[in-house]
């Protein structure tokens, strides 16, 4: 199949960017979106032009490296819980015009073309700090019994691959779905209880320094490649509000 | 009290305040709508109800005492509801300084996307509504202590009725998203009751909007005169 792709090209953080149109020719419908970009890049290299820069790694939807706005939707899959690498060209039609843009948020400055700096998400993780575990040899796996539904809910949150699609799709550039997933997967488990309230406050405070706030549009949930539910946002709000109502001594925040 | 300021400084705190003030305003709007249904029972009933509101709580509180207490509570709620909304909107605009060329919404409802402008329409309407039917400056034929006459003669002007209908549609959309969203803002998620939250918001948005819109329509069509 043959398509026209309009790709955002930007040389560096400070440089001014713009859309450039390319022909994507003889693309197999079974190719992934990234493979289509590979084909375009090969033709660019042959012509001696600079290839389109984009992030990618596992190409099977588990690393969270790839990600771009495709026709105004993060990862381009329109509610099918896929990362960009899992989106296949059969979702497009012959002769389509496809607009490809990088994630846009103040916290995600563009490094080059479609690559953005997502280290803001790492900063939130770092703010969460440690969890209390005993050092030494690995403990027996079944030492702490955890009900199956709780395990599963925690795993649903832990499925987050930190791709940043939630921030990119959110009209407010908010990282609530990401942060709530990270807060909840530990907050649900017994191992995460000692620092539960301290952690949510620290992570939320760092999140709010960089990202927007939630208006419950539900856009993040619709583009999340791991289909993480916005119920986790409510869970994070509950823990944060509860933490703020606790005495400082109880949770040792700021002590 | 520093923790109160600390709490309100955070975006989640502002959303919680927006939810609590919103639910108070919603409760009041619901009671206001129920009281107004007396319009269908005739002038004596509506005017008697209006008189009862003024003397509510008497003699424990002076005449119009409860009215002023509720007015102050509502005013405080409105101020915090709007302040939190404006402050969060500014934060959100800053979080995405450069927008997309085109963007598509997958899940956001029309109601969710019009919360801000809907809120502005409702605020302008409330100001007009107070000048129209409470103080009477915006009313051509205002008679003190005769709300039935003021309502009916007010709605007989077609563009006044139209404005009331448009504003109440905006209110309906605002409630449709707000009444659902507030559960999340306050962290109220529960596997069993989660589907009820959407139904609750839909039901009350429809009930309040339908009843409120029926008043100007009833006057325009001559059912109430």
Describe this structure in words.
The complex is a heterodimer of chains A (255) and B (225). Chain A has two domains: 109 residues, Ubiquitin-like (UB roll), CATH 3.10.20.30; 134 residues, Orthogonal Bundle (Fumarate Reductase Iron-sulfur Protein, Chain B, domain 2), CATH 1.10.1060. In chain A, helix 3 runs antiparallel to helix 5. By secondary structure, chain A is an alpha+beta fold. The longest helix of chain B is centred in the middle third of the chain and has 31 residues. Chain B starts with a helix and ends in a 5-residue tail after the last helix. In chain B, 28% of the residues are buried. The chains are: A alpha+beta (255), B mainly alpha (225). Chains A and B meet through helix 6, helix 7 and helix 8 of A and helix 1, helix 2, helix 4 and helix 8 of B.
What is CATH's topology name of chain B?
A: 3 helical TM bundles of succinate and fumarate reductases
C-alpha Rg of chain A (nearest Å)? 21 Å
Number of domains of chain B: 1
- For this structure, the quaternary state is heterodimer
Largest sheet of chain B: none
Terminal CA distance of chain A: 62 Å
The CATH topology of the largest domain in chain A is given as Fumarate Reductase Iron-sulfur Protein, Chain B, domain 2
Mean pLDDT of chain B: 95
> What is the structural class of chain B?
mainly alpha
- Biggest sheet strand line-up of chain A: 2-1-5-3-4
How many separate domains of chain A?
2
- Percentage beta strand of chain A: 5-15%
Shape of chain A: elongated
CATH architecture of the largest domain in chain A: Orthogonal Bundle
- Main β-sheet of chain A: number of strands, strand sense, barrel status? 5 strands, mixed
**Helix content, binned percent of chain B:** over 70%
The secondary-structure element order of chain A is EEHEEEEEHHHHHHHH
Uncertain segments of chain A:
none
Mean pLDDT of chain A: 94
